[in-house]
Amino acid sequence: VQLQASGGGLVQTGGSLRLSCVASRGTFSIYRMGWFRRAPGKEREFVAAIYWGGGSTVYTDSVKGRFTISRDNASRTVYLQMNSLKPEDTALYYCAADLQGLGFRDYWGQGTQVTVSS
Questions:
Q1: Read out DSSP for 2-29?
Q2: Phi and psi for 25 in degrees, rounded to 5?
Q3: Three-state secondary structure readout of 64-109
Q4: What are φ and ψ of residue 15, in 5° steps?
Q5: Which residues of 6-20 are buried (b: 16+ CB within 10 A; e: fewer)?
Q6: Among 113, 92, 99, which residue's Cα sits nearest to residue 2?
Q7: pLDDT tens-digit readout, 47-106
């Protein structure tokens, strides 16, 4: 599976951005898709995930009510709609694929930078 993320940028506090991640090659085995982020000087953290079949979603507490993960099965695309952005959301955002329920291990996009100015 290859993943191509896009949509990052610079936005003011309270603004919105939508990230996209297109999956290609071997997508039939996708179990979940997720978004992670790494802020400067911090470890990578989980942001949100969506189950490819049923569409159930999971979020980390700090983004609940502000971020929405969704998918379009036909185009093999997962989205992360980010509203009410805060400076602490500034990070490099990565999409990832979990194949066959084995976890987010081997398949990662290249990252897209999100910067929220105060």
A1: EEEEE--EEEETT--EEEEEEEESSGGG
A2: 65, 110
A3: CCCEEEEEECCCCEEEEEECCCCHHHCEEEEEEEEECCCCCCCEEC
A4: -80, -175
A5: ebbeebeeeeebebb
A6: 99
A7: 999 999 889 999 999 999 999 999 998 999 999 999 999 999 999 999 999 999 899 999
Q: Provide φ and ψ at 28, rounded to 5°.
A: -65, -20
Give the strand pairing for 9-12 and 112-117. parallel
* 14 residue type, one letter: G
**Quick one: which of 24, 25, 23 has its CA closest to 33?**
23
Structure tokens at 108: 């990662």
